[in-house]
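Lab notes, practical 5.
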Amino acid sequence: MNILVNLIRDKVAESLIKKTVCELLGITPAKMSLEERLSFASDIENEKIVVASNLILESGDVSQALDYKESGLSDMLKAAAILEVMGFERLSAQMRKRYGELFVETLMSGVREEAYAKKIISEDRSKAKKGKTNKHHTEALRIAKDTWEKYPNASLAGLSEEIYAHLHKQWNDLPVAGTIKTWLQDSGMNPDVKPKNRSFKLVLQQV
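Output from the prediction step:
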């Protein structure tokens, strides 16, 4: 969902760069005197001339939820128009681009928050599911700990395979040997002793 919002934001910002405010207002600053441009800019600032775009929201529930005027977006578009009228076209384009980005980000903030919440819930469920699947985790680590204490030269691969073979005799829902190897590797219990070998027997607690 975040990728989609980013795409919408970038496309909107790009469209505002291409469509100048002067084109929207139907004026050509190059043909206007400095006094005329200053007067025009003043009218924009005082809202005698309303600067609008295909993104502007003046009424309705969406506008209220966005809080369009209070958010500063309206003033940003007016500033872009004034900059363009006064000849600062590059800066005006940057301002319009930023206006488009903020407009979409403000409007779609709820979508981002919902997507983030769903991601957290999904991750929590995934962790819970792994916890249920890996119910043999504790026993595998206990056997590894006891065996490494007696046989510190026992290799990680060999010990993982032996633990898998031992538990597989008792359980049908055991993860693959590679998963047990990962558990042992992540545990940090493997003694830093060399050389490693397979000359060991599992140390099992008597029940």
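Observations recorded by the TA: Confidence is low (pLDDT under 50) at residues 54-70. The first helix runs from residue 2 to 18.
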